[in-house]
Design goal:
Layout: E1 13-16, H1 20-29, E2 36-39, H2 64-72, E3 75-77, E4 94-97, H3 102-114, E5 119-126, E6 129-135, H4 147-152, H5 172-186, H6 193-201, H7 213-220, H8 228-241, E7 249-253, E8 259-263, H9 272-276
Parallel strand pairs: 1-2, 1-4, 2-3, 4-5
Antiparallel strand pairs: 5-6, 6-7, 7-8
Helix pairs in contact: 1-8, 6-7
C-alpha cells in the first residue's frame, strides 16, 4: 500500500492524539511537511513502548506531544483539545483525530463543524481492525451521524498500574488488566499467572480486592492488543482517503484475511449537529 500523497505540501495540519495511531500518521506526514501541530495531554507510560516508537524508558512520565515535538522540531501543545475554542481550528486545512474515546471525537466533531477548517479525518483502531472517516465540513456526514459505530468500539485503553492512586472495587478489574498488560510488555509475555497474582495482591490491602490465577488467566485472554502494523495501515488509509472523491469511510479488518471496505455514508437526517450548523 503506497502512502505517496503530495496533497499535504503547504497545508497546515493538526494531529490530535500522539498514541499508536497518531505516531504512525506523524511518521508519514513528516515526509511531506513540518507544518504540523500536534496536541496531546497524555504522558508516556511504559505500556506505550511496544508500539509508540519515538518513546523509550528514559522518556516515561514525559508529555507525549513534547517528546515528539522536540524530536521532530514541529509545533506541539500539551493540552486537551477541548481547552481550545472552535476558532483554533480555523488556521488548519486538515485535522486528523487519533483518539480512543467517543467524547473527544464528538467534541472535536462539533468544533470542526463550527470552524473554517476544510477537512476532518477520524482514525480508530481496535485489535486487528480499523476505520477511517472523512468529514468535509458540512458537505458530508459528520461523526455524530455515525455515532452508533463508535458505541460498538468500547475497548477501554489500558495504562500503567502507577496511574491508580488507590485500587478499589470500582477500578480493580481495569487495574489488574493494566498490570497484566504492563508485565507482559516488560517480560515479552514470558511471565506466569502466579507471578502476576502475587504482584497484584501485594498492592491491595483488602481481601475482596485480591485476585487469583484463574482470574488472571481469563483476563489475559480478553485483552485486545494494539497492533503496531494495524496502526500503520490505518495511518496509510487516512492519507489515501484525503483524495478519494467517491468514498468518505474505510473499514479494514485483518483478523482472518485482508478485508477492506470503502463507502460513502449518507448524512443522518436526524443528526442534531448537522441540522444546527447546516447554514454555516
Amino acid at each position: 500500500m503506497s502512502c505517496k500523497n503530495t496533497n499535504f505540501i503547504d497545508k497546515k495540519i493538526c494531529v490530535v492524539g500522539c498514541g499508536g495511531t497518531g505516531h504512525e500518521l506523524i511518521k508519514i506526514l513528516i515526509n511531506y511537511t513540518k507544518n504540523i501541530t500536534i496536541i496531546d495531554s497524555d504522558k508516556i507510560e511504559i505500556t506505550n513502548l511496544n508500539r509508540q516508537f519515538w518513546f523509550s524508558k528514559e522518556t516515561c512520565s514525559m508529555p507525549k506531544a513534547e517528546v515528539i515535538g522536540k524530536k521532530l522540531n514541529i509545533e506541539y501543545k500539551v493540552a486537551f483539545i477541548q481547552n481550545f475554542k472552535s476558532d483554533f481550528l480555523n488556521k488548519f486545512k486538515i485535522v486528523f483525530l487519533c483518539v480512543d474515546n467517543i467524547k473527544t471525537r464528538m467534541d472535536v466533531n462539533l468544533m470542526f463543524i463550527q470552524s473554517k477548517c476544510n477537512l476532518l479525518v477520524d482514525l480508530g483502531v481496535e485489535g486487528y481492525a480499523c476505520h477511517i472517516k472523512k468529514v468535509e465540513n458540512n458537505s458530508t456526514s459528520c461523526l455524530y451521524c455515525i455515532k452508533d459505530i463508535y458505541k460498538i468500539e468500547n475497548t477501554e485503553p489500558l495504562c500503567s498500574l502507577s496511574f491508580f492512586k488507590q485500587i478499589n472495587l470500582e477500578n480493580r478489574t481495569k487495574a489488574l488488566k493494566s498490570l497484566i498488560f504492563e508485565l507482559q510488555n516488560e517480560y515479552d509475555e514470558f511471565i506466569v499467572d502466579s507471578k502476576i497474582t502475587e504482584i497484584f495482591n501485594s498492592k491491595v490491602n483488602k481481601m475482596d480486592l485480591r485476585t487469583n490465577e484463574k482470574e488472571v488467566y481469563e483476563l489475559r485472554n480478553t485483552i485486545v492488543p494494539s497492533i503496531a502494523c494495524v496502526n500503520a495501515i490505518c495511518a496509510c488509509l487516512a492519507v489515501k482517503i484525503i483524495t478519494d472523491e467517491s468514498n468518505d469511510f474505510y473499514f479494514y479488518d485483518g483478523s482472518k484475511t485482508i478485508y477492506l471496505a470503502k463507502e460513502k455514508i449518507k448524512k443522518d437526517d436526524n443528526c442534531i449537529v448537522c441540522k444546527s450548523f447546516e447554514n454555516i
